[in-house]
Amino acid sequence: MENTKEEGSGRIIAFDCLRVLAAFAVVVLHVAAQNFSISVRTFEWNVYNFFDGAVRWCVPVFVMISGALFLNPTKKVSIKKLYRKYVLHIVVLFAVWSLFYTVRYSLLRGVGIKDCVRIFFTGHYHMWYLQMTIGVYILIPVLKKITETAMLTRYFLLVGLVMTYVIPTLLQFPNIGILRQGVSNMKFYMTLGYPFYFVLGYYLASETFGVRARRLIYLLGLLGFAVTIGLSGWLSWEAGTNRALYSDFSLNVLLESVGVFVFIKYHFTEKKTGRRMKGIFSRMSGYTLGIYLIHPFVLTELGNRAGFKVTSFNPVLSVPALSMVTFLISFLLIYIIRRIPKVGKIIA
């Protein structure tokens, strides 16, 4: 990602910005989902749908940042280092935080030991991200080989685009749906899912896009937002809550994610970002994974102990307000945890 490094520090300003924005977007997503089961024919549901649809890019962007960093040719990661430093760290994070959530919300509420063990290995509802990350990390040596050449990178992305987004979209139509089993039998697992976003992040970070290309990307991104919010609302209005277009592997969310990534890449550079703003993003960036891990606890406790829920007042205000409070408290808690000698930076 050109023109985004802090002079003398090697930090990439756009990545810091993306991490912070994506972490906040995850909080917004979970806040908006708190009361999503109400009737779709209400003002409140449509507000939740708006906020939910507007931040669906958050997880793909997190994965794309990791891909841009790990697949950069200058980053040398041996298989031994990959497992000892990166995979092991994610395993430790999962074990620590899954134990915390299992004890807090299961064991202390009288859930049996057998069920607690199952809950521990499954993880709290948001911890699938760590499990997914382990799977993607294991593929890094293979993905690095692919991204060594531009042709293979584009080929991988093309196959992934067709198999993950285009064909599944077409299979939703009645007369084409009969091909579903045949396509499924092809088992394109490696190009499906988050490895695609991982490689895409590297590609978008390393490619240079002209003004016209960027405008097209932004236009398609806006179209993605419109489809996610508008079409989800319309489909739900017609047949009850429909979350198909919320998937990270829907074409509209892909367009959202690419639009956000490229926009930040070109608008939060060394020259365009003020010193104070750079300082804020660079400092907060290191806390984003911890914020992701602890924010469900903060959100739950705000509701249970302080009575502050998304239903407390008009959702137009309650969603952003509760999101901001949850985000800031999560940041403060992780700030404190990371200052625990020896273990703080390992577990948060």
Automatic annotation (TrEMBL):
It holds the Pfam family Acyl_transf_3. One of its GO terms (molecular function) is O-acetyltransferase activity. GO terms for cellular component: plasma membrane. The chain crosses the membrane at residues 12-33, 53-74, 86-107, 127-143, 155-174, 186-204, 216-237, 249-268, 280-299, 319-337. It comes from the Bacteria. Signal peptide: none annotated. Keywords: Acyltransferase, Cell membrane, Membrane, Transferase, Transmembrane, Transmembrane helix. This is Acyltransferase family protein. It comes from Candidatus Mediterraneibacter stercoravium.
